User: Fold this.
Amino acid sequence: MKVAVVGATGLVGTKMLQVLAERNFPVTELIPVASEKSVGKDVTFKGKQYKVVSVEDAIKQKPDLALFSAGGSTSLAQAPRFAEAGTTVVDNSSAWRMDPTKKLVVPEVNANVLTAEDKIIANPNCSTIQMVVALKPLHDKYKIKRVVVSTYQSVTGTGVKAVDQLFNERKGIEGVKAYPYQIDLNVLPHIDVFLDNGYTKEEMKMVNETKKIMGDDSIRVTATTVRIPVIGGHSESVNIEFEKDFDLDEVKDLLSKAPGVVVVDDVANLKYPMPLDAHEKDEVFVGRLRRDESQPNTLNAWIVSDNLRKGAATNAVQIAEYLMANHLIGQGVEVE
Assistant:
């Protein structure tokens, strides 16, 4: 498998290289790609150094797979060019997610929609990914009517500049600003740009992407997305109204058996999911499971996951693993 990683020097691109190595994805040839200013730099993969090349050079090499994490404008411009060269693109930006001709995939939820004809596949928003992994088994059993979600999102979701801002502020150092306000010792109810309806783009991503991934436009979703001064992962308070009533023990059993989910729900011993515990892990952690006592058939849950891994890099690599295992790209090499 000849694999290009586009945006290889960024936070998510670096994590993609790490995840490809950890999961032993069968990379026979790695092509790290970045912007012109990064061409010629070295990146490390499995202990070896590789030179960063330009998009033009990468397309000429006709990779089997290209994992993109280089922003929406780059994806819109370059992903079709890779696809025309026969490359299967898994794109981490928002560029293609709501395009009706493109699949939006979380492998635990809807990998079965993928075919060999899908040359550009969209990786969903990080906060949407972790939520739908937990929602899927519950929707199958009880049918979800409505979801109310409030997020507590890590600065790593914004990128290196935001991480630098947080730690500079913590040390009292003036430096680059990713946010319009201080983030240390503060909370910003503002992720991405504000839209005409008063919601942010991030909030509407969660609304629209959830319906597309779950394959059910009847699910009503409302979201408030918030940036908090943590690294390690995103957290979500999720209120889920079902058509059918549920048994709490059955909910815990369904979630504990669901792919990619770990239930951490033992309040007697103060066990619940936290970003520190999710950091550098691929699972979605679910806890604080309890019945909403204000209305029927409604569950409260707390969902935490590493946004750079399951929320981005790992999900993209899992899509590639599914494509390979099902002979949809490459030479049909089986992936364990």
In short: The chain has a mean pLDDT of 96.
